[in-house]
Write a structure and sequence with these properties.
about 475 residues, alpha/beta, Aspartate Aminotransferase, domain 2, Aspartate Aminotransferase, domain 1, seven-stranded mixed sheet, four-stranded antiparallel sheet, 15 helices, globular, binds pyridoxal-5'-phosphate
């Protein structure tokens, strides 16, 4: 009789199961263009019906795949679609998916150098590539995280440890009114309470006002507090604004603050030498968040942090115990000494495999291509009647609103919101909006590797038709 506790599959069974899964994934990707960009997510009833106790006995794989691919996956925002121009797109390149399979399949222990030295070295290589592309100094150490939010969190922890010591309650942190909310959340998680977080206003281009930043730092210092960190954005989520990084890093240096740049959306454009002037000052930050699952097209689950003084990252995390292997010293990167995780997935493999398979040149070309598409779309949208371009693309994101003679602010906001709904309802292009500068804006962000000229043509056409209908008369 077979042991009921035997969880093994035979090699043939594993192959058959793998083939079945891969067939579904590849079919899904091969037809992504024809799938609606915004699935029906009005699914509260479905979600209630899905609740179930853990099954006592197993089910065959095929019916589970049927349900996943035919019923549940389609009921989501199609973030892998070429028409997904909402929020900050991701895409999810196929090598990234393969890397996830390999990592989980071989299930090696990459939290500790000694247990998988060559694999950890690949991860260290991928971090070094990020460091080189961002032109960070040789002293840099990095960390792959689950996303931009956790990278921002880790940066705040480093700054707190370096700059505040025991004066945690006195430390003040500076961000702008356009900073991603993960920064304020991370500050709270790191013990910096909301009454010590200062929100600096932005200028007409939605960029942090540097004179207001310096004034706020000086006021806090005069009040006996300890200004310790400023967080600048290299591409805000709302409008894609790049804060004045050279001036902010200079203020930080002058005032003795840690300058972190949140480049979750925009930093990857620094790969392209011709675009580096748009991100001038970025290499002089103390730390930088990148989000390869956005700007390097990877599937969700890969963020990254670079810290120029790598010793600060190590000092914040390094701790050991008698059951742990001896530290490897300086030469080899030991992930658990640089981040909060011990056991973890092979987090660097998706980026490593993606860069190895495509080569950096293709990634650079893709990034430059997305920006060119955004510039083209913005030029054509700005030329439409009754469209006001509030934020032309600094990188690959722009924001606009509808306005016509005799319209009120409330009417403009409502029409702009209706434009997003009308465009998205047509199923080819998904857009989202934001509140910025006291009004509601529609935004277009081109970052998926699947977005090409035909999709931009459709986007512009659908915006034009909705704008005309909504502002007529
Ligand atoms: C500028 C910025 N920072 C941080 C984040 C958070 O990144 P993640 O969703 O990977 O945690 C985002 C997400 O869109 C972002 O746009």
């Amino acid at each position: 009789m077979q042991d009921p506790g035997n969880l093994e599959f035979s090699a043939d069974e594993m192959r058959a199961m793998g083939d079945a899964v891969l067939r579904r994934v590849v079919d899904h990707l091969a037809t992504i263009e024809s799938q609606p960009v915004r699935g029906d997510t009005d699914a509260a009833g479905l979600c209630r019906a899905l609740r179930e106790p853990a099954p006592e006995h197993g089910t065959a794989l095929e019916p589970l795949l049927d349900a996943l691919f035919d019923e549940w996956i389609p009921r989501s925002f199609n973030t892998a679609s070429p028409g997904y121009l909402a929020y900050i797109p991701s895409g999810g390149v196929y090598p990234g998916a393969l890397a996830e399979l390999i990592g989980a399949g071989v299930n090696r222990y990459t939290g500790v150098w000694l247990t998988a030295p060559a694999l950890v070295q690949l991860e260290a290589n991928a971090l070094d590539w990020l460091r080189d592309w961002m032109q960070f100094p040789p002293t840099t150490r990095g960390l792959f995280t689950t996303g931009g939010s956790t990278a921002n969190f880790t940066a705040i922890v480093c700054a707190r440890e370096r700059k505040l010591g025991t004066r945690l309650r006195d430390g003040t942190l500076y961000l702008s009114s356009e900073t991603h909310h993960s920064v304020a959340k991370s500050a709270r998680l790191a013990g910096i309470l909301p009454d010590r977080v200062r929100t600096i206003p932005v200028d007409a281009q939605f960029r942090m006002q540097v004179d207001r930043l310096e004034a706020a730092i000086e006021a806090d210092r005069a009040a006996g507090l300890v200004p310790f960190m400023v967080v600048a954005s290299a591409g805000t989520t709302n409008t894609g604004a790049v804060d004045p990084l050279p001036q902010i890093t200079a203020v930080a240096q002058r005032q003795g603050l840690w300058c972190h740049v949140d480049g979750a959306y925009g930093a990857s454009f620094h790969l392209c030498p011709e675009l580096r002037p748009l991100l001038a000052g970025l290499p002089h930050a103390d730390s930088l968040t990148l989000d390869p699952h956005k700007g390097l097209f990877l599937p969700y689950g890969t963020g990254a942090l670079l810290v120029a003084d790598g010793e600060a990252l190590r000092a914040a995390h390094s701790l050991t115990a008698s059951y742990m292997p001896e530290s490897q010293g300086e030469e080899f990167y030991d992930p658990h000494q640089y981040g909060p995780d011990l056991s973890r997935n092979f987090r660097g493999l998706p980026l490593w495999l993606t860069v190895k398979l495509y080569g950096a040149a293709r990634l650079r070309a893709a990034l430059a291509g997305k920006r060119a598409l955004a510039l083209d779309a913005a030029r054509r949208v700005a030329a439409l009647p009754n469209v006001v371009m509030d934020a032309p693309p600094q990188l690959s994101l722009f924001a606009f609103h509808l306005e016509w003679p005799g319209s009120t602010r409330a009417g403009q906001d409502a029409a702009t919101r209706a434009l997003l709904e009308q465009v998205t309802r047509r199923g080819k292009v998904m857009l989202t909006g934001c509140h910025a500068g006291g009004r509601f804006l529609a935004r277009v962000c081109v970052l998926s590797f699947r977005t090409h000229r035909t999709h931009i043509d459709t986007c512009v056409e659908h915006i034009a038709e909705a704008a005309e209908a909504l502002t007529a008369g």
